[in-house]
What we know:
Layout: H1 8-14, E1 21-23, E2 28-30, H2 35-44, H3 56-72, E3 80-85, E4 88-92, H4 97-104, E5 110-112, E6 117-121, H5 126-134, E7 138-144, H6 169-184, H7 189-205, H8 216-227, H9 234-247
Parallel strand pairs: 3-7
Antiparallel strand pairs: 1-2, 3-4, 4-6, 5-6
Helix pairs in contact: 6-7, 7-9
Amino acid sequence: MLQFPFDNAIATLVRQIEGATWSQTRKAWHIPDTKEAYEKLLSLFPGTEDPGMHARPVQDAVQSAPAREATTGKPVAGNVDILVIGRQIQVRLPKNEADIQFLLSFKYARWNRDGFYWIVPNYGSNLEMLENYFNTRISELDFVKEPAPKPSPYPDETYSITELAPMSAESLAEVNRFGKWMEHKRYSPSSIETYTQVISVFLRFIVPKTSAEATNDDMQRFVYQYMIPRRLSYSYQNQAVNPVGFKK
Length: 248
């Protein structure tokens, strides 16, 4: 197993070893335990003595990278992570004034203090410009599918019920019993007429269901797919909801 901070030049050499694979979980290269693979490793990295150890020349080359940055001021290869999520590009990288000025050149780019990364809008050629600028410094470039929007808790208002089915005999008997109950409770004749008319419309709307099978979802559909398209008043909505409340 070879494990070292990402360096594109070294990774290119490791890929020349037949059967070499990258483990995303362990963040390391796996080399086949064969004579051919070991000999290829020795030829690529002279001085490696123990196949059970990390390749010392690889470590030496990587450990020298920060020193090169300190003396030359050039960014180290493989220290930028880019994650593309829908319309957003997240960029994680060490603090560098030149990089910051470059990121700020993007319209609406901003720093996320909670996640410690830069956010660049994903439109136009922004991603391509980021790839060209950071080039071999990119250690990871991943694309994540944007989560699907949560479905609205309300029915689709654009769908309207234009015709109502005839009321069944069972529902008609239910409405008559409800009217008798209101008479017993001393409701005025006008209130009884209004409520029984509204609940009759509702029961026709939910056919083939009966009043006993009606749910809150049915009432929401009734409001959004029947009342609102017809611009019925708020008081009419209350008159429709109240009888259902009585029956529940």
